[in-house]
């Protein structure tokens, strides 16, 4: 294939011109010499866009001359026509470019006069008739864009896909328009916004037109195609018109309310506050349009909205900065936002009739992008759909935010800019809807070759694929010593004993790690760990303020805990446990599961707890207003609350027992409207419930069923976070649109497998612990040192309070004693959340006073270190347990004792440097050998290596 002519003329033009600008076919090998060949418009386009459009574009019309279309150039400016096809001598454009360099009217005025070859190019182009591809609109290109164009040109041969977003366009009124985005995907999976470098055109200019990258209707009805050409690739998107010349009346809900959202007027820090600001209140994020309309038009009549002189309305003057405003200027007087407000007031400031369509959802495009290097950009476009079947570009009306600004920031107009390597999600909010797009950022010009990694199961495949997208190399595999200690602590909450470690290290079975996980999940300690974790989520404790457990009834808490332990110990599937729990009826003594409804009597908090524990959602915000960063509305909240509005309670002869039953009466009323709300599943349908039927039973069956997309994902995420110290969604109980999973495919796969396993948690634990992802070392490399979300290496995690106290007891051979439990019981076995001690409190044991995952404190603190060093947790126990004294009595050598202590505390043998330092200490101990060895024991128990899992 012959190289296109304009590519061969790079040196001639002095520009890096993209082959995407070529409309004519390349000249065949037998073509006439370049001088005699027809002028390729791509060369002319590059010249005009780099040298002329800076001063003659829609945003800056110098001399009243536009040069972005052929029609505009022929029309000319204040000096007459700029272009006369076929007549170079009569074209003002050519007259200006040949003026002396010091002439006031020379074009271009900046950057020096055009070179002789550039002038010749324009002259020949005009003489040949000034061919201009139909529908093509030029755009000014800055020096930065010219540089970017050169970079794109170098990468263009590896382009694998070119896409137009949205992939189809519907124009339904004269006001309607759509911003067009063109994105290229390359062989290395990176993407690039190529809208400015593509030739965009409408196939039939009589149907629709392009102004820059904005598509607008021309005809009233019809269809055509939008075409984007980059290099030799052309893609198309259908364009349909229906009422394209029909006027749409200005709408309060469709046009004015979005301005308040976009301008931040109804945010919590401004007029959306509970008491408003400066005497003016709007509903938070526009959740109450009718109320906002009343406050705008019925308060301060004639001032806030001035129908006689709209420009003098306080609403207008403050927003554009014409008068002092504590919120400063919100937008420019010539902005589309101010124009919408003025038009609404000029038309009588009417409220919408009932026939006006309502928003039914939004979409963002593109949904996933991979940017290369810092400073790369990608435009996001947002389309809203409406109840009448129409759609609308709302990019300029939406709110944008990023959950990881250092990696990918997004400005108010939806332009994403890349930063540091990593993953981010950008969120677009419009009306009550929020949608995210994923942004991956990798270093520029990175020398990378995908590593060949061992993958034990689907977890490794999905984690490694995510790391590959980010060009992150995972850490190596942990040692056997590290694995056995890690697995014991995570799976059964116990530090391995020296003999157990030695046995594992001596095992030659290549699948010994898998065998270890199998054996650990069958131990009773595995059950105890998960009973403890669920006891925290279910708030199992006595003495809960405000309910019938006052005064404290330890008996009820113990029965509830034992019921839970029995179910988990028998490996009853979690979905069955949850169904039994939520639909339970009976007495708190005779039917322990009903204690779930005694831990929280407030229906609002109970509603929130169920959503948070079983679906990982914090819906508290929707109690008083629509959730600002999630999909939940007040209708959703009070519809979900309706499932708990008919819970009945009655006393019995036993003062410690309360009967929970379905009283078949009671409704949930909307906080604002006081309307009775029908029971409605979160994110689901409103079920048909017969009169008198127990609503909780209907909810219980849905929550733990495949119809609920959140339950299995939530359980999987909780289990994952236990083993990695970080959830795929983190915090695990804060699932929302604006806090999406770091690896959505992984979370979906875990949930699918958990469902297929019939909620057998042991099988899911085995999947996780036998994956190479779990077995990775904590040692980082250059590429993954900053990674905290993608599981490229193991995290160093502080051991939780109960397990740490049990470890100290086990290692020092000093039994614990807790209220209600026999001597030697483990802290993990404590049934009552109200039972604690100083150590457990200091190290952050959950009080079980709320369902929040944040109740368990895992952060190391100074008080923890001081307690280990100076308190009785270590020093006194070393003396009481007499471990060192016993080993000395057994005639163990110093080396054997040190080895035993290291295996007990660290799960490994001492290193040579450590041996050397200890031997020096022991050499000078004399007759204080036992004391010196106990000092070593104390030092080990006070080291970070002991109370961190790694």
Task: Work out the strand percent.
Answer: 5-15%
Q: Give the overall shape, derived from the CA principal axes.
A: globular
Mean pLDDT: 89
Stretches where pLDDT falls below 50 for ≥5 residues?
Answer: 1-35
Helix content: 25-40%
Rg to the nearest angstrom? 35 Å
Question: Could you give the distance between the termini?
Answer: 59 Å
Our count of helices gives: 33
| Class by alpha and beta content | alpha+beta
Number of strands: 29
The main pleated sheet reads as: 4 strands, mixed
Strand order of the largest sheet: 4-12-11-8
Oligomer: single chain
Please provide a written account of the structure.
The model is unreliable at 1-35 (pLDDT under 50). This protein has 33 helices and 29 strands. A hairpin with a 2-residue loop joins strand 21 and strand 22. The protein is globular. Helix 15 packs antiparallel against helix 24 (761-769). The chain has 950 residues and is of the alpha+beta class. Helix content is 34%, strand content 14%. The strands form 10 sheets. Strands 4-12-11-8 form a 4-stranded mixed β-sheet, with no helix packed on it. It has a 4-stranded mixed β-sheet with strand order 14-22-21-18.
